[in-house]
Specification:
Layout lengths: L4 E4 L3 H12 L5 E6 L10 E6 L2 E7 L9 E5 L3 H13 L3 E8 L8 E6 L5 E6 L5
Parallel strand pairs: 1-4, 5-8
Antiparallel strand pairs: 2-3, 3-4, 6-7, 7-8
Helix pairs in contact: 1-2
């Protein structure tokens, strides 16, 4: 099981705005901020998550990542739809509208967007439609 994942972004402020809006339908928000001073000059970082667990990190200090794929679990199809719309409204670009992806499995319902750095961000629900 993965505890957390993180990658570098080109503009922390822009990425913060994008991810705050895109991940809100999933109940994910910024719960920890680490400054450049706190890391001893190794970049500033934002930890997104729920409760006290920051499991998704973006930060500065390295070359921005591109080509990363991160999929967030959604509790239902409506939340996948809400994530997709929120991500587009936040400036993301379409990389696959919400829908079934039966090539993965019969109930795979996902939506894909590109973040400001071109990373592929997904919300997915694996259950049957209710």
């Amino acid at each position: 099981m993965i505890d957390h994942i993180g990658f570098a972004v080109s503009d922390l402020s822009a990425s913060r705005g994008f991810y705050e809006r895109a991940l809100s339908p999933l109940g994910i928000s910024v719960i920890m901020e680490v400054t450049e001073e706190m890391t001893g000059g190794h970049g500033a970082h934002l930890g997104f998550g729920r409760d006290i667990n920051p499991f998704f990190w973006v930060g500065t200090g390295d070359a921005a990542s591109a080509g990363v794929h991160v999929a967030f679990a959604a509790p239902d199809r409506a939340t996948v739809d809400a994530f997709y719309q929120a991500a587009l409204d936040a400036g993301g670009t379409d990389n696959g509208a919400p829908g079934l992806r039966p090539e993965y499995h019969p109930n795979y319902y996902g939506a894909f967007v590109r973040d400001p750095d071109g990373n592929n961000i997904e919300a997915v629900f694996h259950g049957a439609a209710s």
